[in-house]
């Protein structure tokens, strides 16, 4: 499922008040961080990731890798902040994705 512009706008408005829960630093995008992203998306469906100043990673590259390997969808990239969305694999955590489908 690809996100429409209205769905992206809705998710972006929800993410405005969120704080980044995952930070990518000097170790880059390693398997540990990918596992953390996968677990966070299963629990919350919408997360913010912050790329710290000391990382060599590029935000576009990080977004591309996470989209391919995890199946997440990029809502928005702002500077060094990445907002990702993915429907949870657990039914009890699918509160947000139901609202997104209605839009």
Automatic annotation (TrEMBL):
<keyword id="KW-0694">RNA-binding</keyword>
<dbReference type="InterPro" id="IPR001890">
    <property type="entry name" value="RNA-binding_CRM"/>
</dbReference>
<dbReference type="InterPro" id="IPR051925">
    <property type="entry name" value="RNA-binding_domain"/>
</dbReference>
<dbReference type="Pfam" id="PF01985">
    <property type="entry name" value="CRS1_YhbY"/>
</dbReference>
<dbReference type="InterPro" id="IPR017924">
    <property type="entry name" value="RNA-binding_YhbY"/>
</dbReference>
<dbReference type="InterPro" id="IPR035920">
    <property type="entry name" value="YhbY-like_sf"/>
</dbReference>
<feature type="domain" description="CRM">
    <location>
        <begin position="1"/>
        <end position="97"/>
    </location>
</feature>
<protein>
    <submittedName>
        <fullName>Ribosome assembly RNA-binding protein YhbY</fullName>
    </submittedName>
</protein>
């Amino acid at each position: 499922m690809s996100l429409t512009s209205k769905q992206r706008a809705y998710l972006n408005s929800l993410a405005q008040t969120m704080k980044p829960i995952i930070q990518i630093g000097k170790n880059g995008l390693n398997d540990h961080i990918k596992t953390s992203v996968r677990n966070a998306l299963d629990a919350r469906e919408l997360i913010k990731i912050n790329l710290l100043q000391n990382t060599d990673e590029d935000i576009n590259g990080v977004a591309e890798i996470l989209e391919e390997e995890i199946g997440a969808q990029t809502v928005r990239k702002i500077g060094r902040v990445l907002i990702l969305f993915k429907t949870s694999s657990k039914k009890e955590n699918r509160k947000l994705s139901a609202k997104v489908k209605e839009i």
